[in-house]
Amino acid sequence: MLIRTLYSEPASIMAAVVCSLIVAGLLKGMIGVGMPVVALPLLSLFIDVKSAAMLLSMPLIFSNLPQALEGGQTGRSLMQLMPVILGMIPGLFLGVRALLALDANVAKMIAGLVLMGVGGITLLAPKPQLAPRLTLPAGITFGFFGGILGGIAAMPGPLVFIFLLAKGLRGKAFTKEASLYLVVSAGLLAVLLTASREFSWLDVWVSAVAMLPVALGMYLGQHLRDKITPETFERLVLIAVIAAGAELVRHGFFS
Predict the structure, then answer these.
(1) What are the residue ranges spanned by the domains of the chain?
(2) 199-228, pLDDT tens digit by residue?
(3) Residue closest to 2 by CA, chosen among 243, 179, 218, 199
């Protein structure tokens, strides 16, 4: 489906898709997270949400793998993430089933509402604190709903990031667990989409090639990060994400 979708589009749409991936990589390079939050609304303006989710699966893995392995003790971090992963697996399964079953316009509206909600929550920057005895049930719960968002909108991360912050993780510890979670969830997302009748392993290769413009954006973002404060850039991006979500809802409703 992804190959057919891209092959049937004019060169201008292909150029817009590539530019969208570069912009998403730019954000990843500047602040280390947020690539799918920007990529999904941009891509969904040019291709359908299902193809956008498939296209982002491999860049999600490759862009987060170095941070997931950085500093060693990856096995220990994976064990710390087990409650989240246990919740994420059934949630992602349900999310992918919903994505494949939904009408394209309905999927756009759901993705738009998700973007507006996640963008608004992140923009308000809540700082919850989680009691140790609640770590297991909260991890499973956040993982489950994060998996659903991952399946529907290729955004498994934002809800889980809130959980990791509430758990007290900051700096490199936060980045490692967040990146490791994104690698695992994106890998499972690619497997579930490929196992459906709508995608094939050839689409996985197309998704892998999409890492090239993302890598270019990351390279540019890393060189620009000293020219603008990450807080200012992230705030502007989140406002744009909320606006893009509203546009997806409008487009899905009136199409």
Answers:
(1) 2-254
(2) 999 999 999 999 999 999 999 988 876 677
(3) 199
